[in-house]
Amino acid sequence: MAQILLAEDDDSMRDFLAKALRRAGHEVQAVGDGLDAMESLTQSPVDLLLADVVMPGLDGIELARRAAQEQPGIKVMFITGFAAVALKNREQAPKGARVLSKPFHLRELVDQIDVMLSA
After folding, report:
1. If you write DSSP's letter for every residue of the chain in order, what string do you get?
2. Which end is more exposed in the chain, N or C (fewer Cβ atoms within 10 Å of the end residue's Cβ)?
3. Torsion angles phi and psi, residue 89, rounded to 5
4. The pTM is what?
């Protein structure tokens, strides 16, 4: 079981993903934006940051950059409907970060998370 921080600004998507990850056996802290995610990271460490790329306030790329400073070695996966945006700014993301483009199947998400956590 892993500690996952989920940062997704779409309420229904956030709830859906959090439930699926909990069913897969993970502990999930779900927040609606990057600023809340940073606050959560400073309070408790996590194994994986799962972040939408495009969010108001603090976007996923900047969130991941700051998260890696706060918690070196954190694993990062981005979820986005805007793959071109994610790939354009990818050099700013922590090393080893993965991008999963929406729409995706929940099984694919859980499988990729499992692979990242076991690496």
Report:
1. --EEEEE-S-HHHHHHHHHHHHHTT-EEEEESSHHHHHHHHHHS--SEEEEESS-SSS-HHHHHHHHHHHSTT-EEEEEES-HHHHHHTGGGSPTT-EEEESS--HHHHHHHHHHHHH-
2. C
3. -100, 10
4. 0.90
